[in-house]
Design a protein that fits this description.
- This protein has about 450 residues and is α/β, with parallel strands linked by helices.
- The model has no long low-confidence stretch (mean pLDDT about 90).
- The chain is built from 18 helices and 15 strands.
- The strands form 4 sheets. It has a 7-stranded mixed beta sheet with strand order 1-4-5-15-10-11-14, sandwiched between helices.
- Helix 4 packs parallel to helix 5, helix 5 (about 140-150) packs parallel to helix 7 and helix 10 (about 230-240) packs across helix 12 (about 265-280).
- The chain has helices at about 50-60, 70-75, 85-90, 115-125, 140-150, 160-165, 170-175, 190-200, 205-220, 230-240, 240-250, 265-280, 300, 345-350, 360-375, 380-400, 420-425, 435-445; strands at about 5, 15-20, 65, 80-85, 95-100, 130-135, 155-160, 180-185, 225, 260, 285-295, 305-310, 315-320, 355-360, 405-410.
């Protein structure tokens, strides 16, 4: 029997718990530390996070319940459909079976609301009525603006300036949902003013925008901070993607040999890959591949050490793969992947060889996106194109060997607000950029003394 193109789960089958990968890691996660290397106690972060979020951040429990109000809100678009990419398989002439989880069906057009909704809920329950955050491509900012609207919370967003200029309609979406949006770096914070003093024409970065959002949240008792990736609780919330995908594949009697997802901070990758790692931990074999840009090669060229999560050094230090918190990535069009570090959990798993990582150039990603659009009809976000490109490499290899692997990737969002980038690609105006080793070394020279490599 031919696998159907769309594989649905009823709302009644939506997961009731998130999966916490920390419970199944061979070694416990490293603690967060201050600049001197001393572990930071969880209560030190209560100034910007509600208690329930911090409990999830530090938890070693395998399953964490999803509150009923959160599940009800998520049913606006969840469970998201799983697709069999029959047309792409035919275009590639591959014996591989290709599946993708379509997270583009959320109101914000990406996977990001999966964490924005619970973060807004927990903050509302803690009496918070105002949140600050950063956003790169705009997917996270859009998602938190939506979640703030759902739960009666005001949202201020620091948007990386290069993306603010490249993606005006993402800005429009955020303001439509009631959020304030500012191009970062701004002159509204000490962190922003310092960056502008050093470089008045700064394109900004996620690290800078995080500094601005954290600084404001820490300075106001009525305001908390919400992060769209990197931290453990964010990846926890995103595991609903992989948990649903496992149920959907079971409905058609299939299981992946390989799982691909884009990786910037890690929420995209962790969301689909972590639930399959649970099977690896139990003895089942599946390869989990994080795909990043060659121009921001955190896992593939970074170092595994302690570093700040932001440029100004306001956050606790995490043990992660990093290019250095002063790393300034080029203005590539996958704005959601322009981050100097990677999730501590993803980094630990990569360091312990539990997952794989590869990097893809900008031209290859857009070529993959165009091929996917022509075959499957969906124009993918540039971030998603990274996973598609790496998956296509494997599907072409299957065509050579005749091996009928099952390949799964996360279509983390649509590219409807990225058509300027596609226009530039189609006109031949985009180039590849392989970040030079000497520039990475220069950025890493600014690591705190105890973390020097």
């Amino acid at each position: 029997m031919t696998t159907p193109t769309k594989i649905y789960l009823p709302e009644s089958e939506m997961p009731t718990h998130w999966y916490n990968v920390a419970a199944d890691l061979p070694t416990p996660p490293a603690p967060y530390c201050g600049p001197d290397g001393t572990p930071v106690p969880p209560e030190a972060m209560l100034a910007i996070f509600p208690e329930e979020i911090l409990k999830q951040e530090m938890s070693a429990e395998r399953w964490i319940p999803i509150p009923e109000p959160v599940r009800e809100a998520l049913t606006m678009w969840r469970p998201s459909p799983l697709y069999r990419a029959h047309r792409l398989e035919k275009m590639l002439g591959t014996p591989a079976k290709i599946y993708y989880k379509n997270e583009a069906v959320s109101p914000a057009g990406s996977h990001k609301p999966n964490s924005a909704v619970p973060q807004a809920y927990y903050n509302r329950e803690a009496g918070i009525r105002r949140l600050t955050t950063e956003t790169g491509a705009g997917q996270w900012g859009s998602s938190l603006a939506l979640a703030g609207q759902m739960f009666g919370i005001d949202v201020r967003i620091y948007m990386v300036k290069i993306s603010y200029e490249q993606k005006p309609y993402r800005r429009s979406m955020m303001t439509t949902w009631g959020a304030e949006v500012f191009p970062s770096p701004t002159d509204m914070t000490n962190a922003g003013r310092a960056i502008l003093a050093a470089d008045p024409n700064s394109n900004g970065s996620l690290g800078i925008a995080i500094s601005e959002a954290v600084e404001e949240a820490a300075s106001r008792p009525d305001t908390n901070y919400a992060l769209g990736s990197v931290l453990n609780h964010v990846l926890l919330h995103q595991t609903i993607i992989g948990l649903e995908a496992k149920k959907q594949l079971a409905l058609v009697g299939d299981y992946p040999d390989m799982v691909f997802a884009p990786c910037g901070g890690g929420s995209n990758f962790g969301g689909i890959a972590f639930p399959f790692y649970a099977d690896n931990a139990a003895g089942k074999q599946v390869r989990l591949v994080a795909v990043e840009p060659m121009s921001c090669p955190t896992l593939t060229k970074g170092v595994y050490t302690y570093d700040f999560g932001d440029t100004a050094g306001l956050t606790p230090m995490m043990k992660m793969y990093t290019l250095g918190h002063n790393f300034m990535p080029p203005g590539i069009h996958a704005g959601g992947l322009r981050y100097h570090g990677a999730s501590a959990l993803v980094s630990q798993m990569y360091n312990e060889k539990l997952i794989e990582a590869t990097s893809v150039g900008q031209l290859e990603t857009f070529a993959a996106g165009v091929m996917f659009a022509k075959s499957e009809g969906i124009v993918p976000a540039p971030e998603s194109c990274h996973a598609i490109a790496a998956m296509i490499r494997e599907a072409k290899e299957c065509a050579k060997t005749g091996e009928a692997k099952t390949l799964l990737f996360n279509l983390s969002g649509h590219g409807h607000f990225d058509m300027t980038s596609y226009d530039r690609y189609l006109k031949g105006e985009l180039t590849d950029f392989d970040y030079p080793e000497e520039a990475i070394k220069a950025s890493l020279a600014d690591l705190p003394s105890f973390a020097k490599v």
